[in-house]
Design a protein that fits this description.
Blueprint lengths: L10 E9 L1 H14 L12 E9 L4 H8 L4 E9 L6 E9 L2 E9 L1 H8 L5 H4 L3 H12 L3 E15 L4 E10 L22 E7 L5 H6 L6 E2 L4 H5 L4
Antiparallel strand pairs: 1-5, 1-8, 1-9, 2-3, 2-6, 3-4, 4-5, 6-7, 7-8
């Protein structure tokens, strides 16, 4: 994707569960036998995800999440691996129980300008998502708030466009300062617990449904952003 493109709108189902380390071992062994991994994975089968979430002074995104508001949205900056050379601005939203995401590429220099409080360039790019962020920075005082980092192992299954992810070692630095040059994230709000996510389009194939079964998993809202906000 080039710097001048925005991904199309797509709504998907999204299921989240928290699982214990023993369940993680069993589930991972099963998934590795059944499904191919994401092609971006490293030698150990996983890759690092680092995000910087935005919120208003009134914690609008956080409160809507905790209150279970059905129509809600979050803006974030995200990169994969240890280098922020390839960055994206993403808007994640939920409508009538379905989740969607729009994204646009940002350069490292643009991200640095944004974190320094510069926002005029968002209009200069002429992209709807960047223009929307500009107006919300000005109109709702949306600001960078919390860094969320974790290690992800992802599996794919073409029927149903299924993506199963296991997010481990959730960590944060408590503020937005270390997002672009993270020396380390010492704070761990969910230590020893893995977040299992299952995303799919119109249907979830029985093979996947059976594969992700674990006896003691806890289904429901599990926001990595909300967990990391505890350290603000």
């Amino acid at each position: 994707m080039t710097a001048g493109t925005t991904e199309p709108l797509r709504l998907r189902h999204e299921l989240k569960h928290q699982i214990a380390p023993q369940e993680d071992l069993v589930l991972t062994h099963r998934l590795r036998k059944l499904f191919p991994r994401d092609g971006h994975a490293g030698a150990d089968g996983s890759y690092r995800v680092t995000s910087l979430y935005f919120d208003t002074p009134y914690d609008t995104a956080l409160r809507k999440k905790l209150d279970g508001v059905d129509r809600r949205e979050k803006f974030r900056l995200r990169y994969y691996g240890a280098s922020p050379a390839f960055l994206k601005l993403e808007k994640k939203y939920k409508v009538n129980g379905l989740c969607g995401k729009r994204s646009a590429r940002l350069t490292l220099q643009e991200a640095e300008r944004l974190l320094a409080g510069e926002d005029a360039f968002l209009l200069e790019r002429g992209e709807p998502l960047l223009a929307e962020l500009y107006h919300k920075l000005r109109g709702t005082l949306l600001r960078p708030r919390t860094v969320v980092c974790y290690d992800r192992e992802a599996f794919l299954y073409a029927p149903g466009n299924v993506r199963v992810t296991l997010d481990r070692n959730l960590r944060t630095c408590g503020d937005s300062a270390g997002f672009l040059s993270p020396a380390g994230f010492p704070l761990k709000p969910l230590d020893g617990v893995t977040v299992l996510e299952v995303k799919y389009d119109a249907f979830l194939p029985d093979l996947v449904r059976l594969a992700v079964q674990t006896p003691d998993r806890r289904a429901g809202a599990c926001s990595k952003y909300a967990l990391c906000r505890r350290f603000d």
